[in-house]
Design brief:
There is one protein chain. The protein has 330 residues and is α+β, with helices and mostly antiparallel strands. It folds into 3 domains: 63 residues, no CATH class; 140 residues, no CATH class; 120 residues, Arc Repressor Mutant, subunit A. The chain is 52% helix and 9% strand. It is built from 15 helices and 7 strands. Helix 4 runs parallel beside helix 8. The radius of gyration is 21 Å and the shape is globular. The relative contact order is 0.12.
């Protein structure tokens, strides 16, 4: 799936730090993402979710249960201004409701809800529409990180009454108990954990009305910026995706966007990208999709993606993924 959503480098940095102790190079984890080690120190750390998911896919290939570990490391401070707005909220319920207002800032790939069930509240994540291959990983990362946020807000672990997951129990399901110390079941209607609804009225230890008002306003402004950039980036990706066989170039794309090439270059730089980076991302995504169909010859894939020679496509694919197209297909 091609993404137009923006996110931050937080999760990518977390993946790199998690594997650093094992001596694995950052280049291996960043392969195919279009992110370089130098990008990690940028003042504006925004990337697309497709870039983030490529790094996560590289991590899952090395360790399938990595979603649980990454989620346990995603503390509330990793969410920038939103994190501090949550911490300074008056009550636990106020903080959770504020988080649900800004899914773009939370960086979630799910639809999040608080569902009342008698004396229980279910914190639910559903309607996942991203890569099926990363469905379990994303569910584990999402639910574990949400539990960590709850614990951070309260200053102690939130007691859970139950937890459920939409996927079948993985072979390492016993590892879930480290985060979800409660009855669990799998193959449910959604991913969710339940707690006593009385916790919603619990005052937060770091509540501060002045700080909260300032942070909440900054979240509102940043959310408008994020969603505006997402719509703009989505339009660019849509145009480029339709022209991969005959890419228009920076000047041609700028004309289609009704702006100057300089303006387009600046806007792409603002989201940590460039015309060539975006074109490469789209070509890589399309190439992986086409390579999955073994009836399509590699020379035809090269033509479809706008390469005049098959060798040029092979070189580009090795640069994107670290392996040749034929090896990827195998």
């Amino acid at each position: 799936m091609l993404h137009s959503h923006l996110t931050t480098l937080n999760a990518v940095s977390l993946v790199l730090n998690t594997f650093k102790s094992e001596g694995l190079s950052s280049e291996a984890l960043l392969a195919g993402s279009g992110i370089s080690p130098a990008d990690l120190s940028r003042a504006d750390p925004r990337i697309t979710t497709s870039q983030e998911m490529q790094v996560c896919a590289n991590a899952v290939a090395l360790r399938e249960e990595i979603g649980l570990e990454l989620g346990r490391r995603m503390h509330v401070s990793a969410y920038g201004m939103l994190g501090y707005a949550l911490l300074s909220s008056a009550t636990f319920g106020d903080a959770l409701r504020l988080a649900l207002q800004y899914p773009a800032l939370l960086g979630t790939l799910f639809h999040l809800q608080l569902k009342g069930d008698g004396e229980r509240i279910w914190f639910s994540a559903s309607h996942y529409t991203d890569s099926p291959a990363l469905a379990v990983f994303n569910a584990e990362l999402c639910m574990t990180s949400l539990k960590v946020i709850c614990d951070d807000l309260l200053g102690h672990p939130l007691p859970l009454l139950a937890a459920r997951f939409a996927h079948p129990a993985p072979r390492y399901h016993h590892g879930y108990a480290e985060t979800f110390d409660c009855p669990m079941h799998f193959e449910a209607c959604d991913h969710a954990f339940a707690f006593d609804k009385a916790w919603l009225d619990q005052p937060l230890p770091l509540a501060d009305p002045v700080t909260h008002r300032a942070m909440a306003e900054r979240c509102r402004v940043q959310n408008l910026e994020f969603t505006g950039r997402q719509a703009w980036l989505g339009r660019i990706r849509q145009l480029l995706e339709a022209q991969l066989a005959d890419a228009p170039g920076l000047d041609g794309l700028a004309r289609q966007m009704n702006c100057s090439a300089r303006t387009l270059r600046r806007h792409l730089s603002d989201v940590g990208s460039s015309y060539q980076d975006l074109l490469d991302q789209l070509r890589f995504e399309r190439a992986k999709h086409l390579l999955a169909d073994k009836q399509v010859p590699i020379y035809r894939i090269a033509e479809t993606l706008g390469f005049s020679e098959t060798a040029s496509f092979r070189h580009a694919f090795v640069r994107w993924s670290g392996v040749a197209p034929s090896h990827f297909r195998a």
